[in-house]
Each structure stands twice: as C-alpha cells, then as structure tokens.
Design brief:
By secondary structure, the chain is mainly α. The protein contains six helices and no strands. 6% of the residues are buried. The model has no long low-confidence stretch (mean pLDDT 85).
Amino acid sequence: MWIPPWLSTVGSAEEIVEWKAISRSYRGRDLYERRLEFVRRMRERHPDMPLSFEEELAAGAERLRKDPALRRAQGLDPIESRMKEVES
C-alpha cells in the first residue's frame, strides 16, 4: 500500500498502521475528513513534517489568491479583469 512521503518521513510504525487502516476503509462519506483529521493530528505531533498533498494544495491556492500576476500567468484570472487593464 502506498504511504505518503510526509508520513514515511516522520511516522512511527503505529501511525503508518493507522494511515493504512484509514485508507483501506472505503466505506463512508467521511473518508476524506478522517484523512484530514489524521494529517492534522500528525502536524500537531510532528510540526516539522513535510507538507501533505492537501496542505500543498491549500498553500498553492493561497499563493494564487494573493498574487494577481501569478493567477494571470496560470490563466486563472477572469477575462473581465484583463479587459479592464487593456481599457485603462
């Protein structure tokens, strides 16, 4: 079973077993929430662990939110805002 890099970096054997148990449970709509809760607990125990995929995604979204030039470069800026720049 695949183990996330952040978990293999800092996780104990028990924590890895817990992750595998969560990942194997395909039932329930709360699987994603259980994974996020596990990552939160791991972050509390190991503040210096590498970012999880979800944390990297959130950090990237925050960078895009704060940087209009980056949004434009990524093609995520609405056309209306570009039209305002051209009209000025």
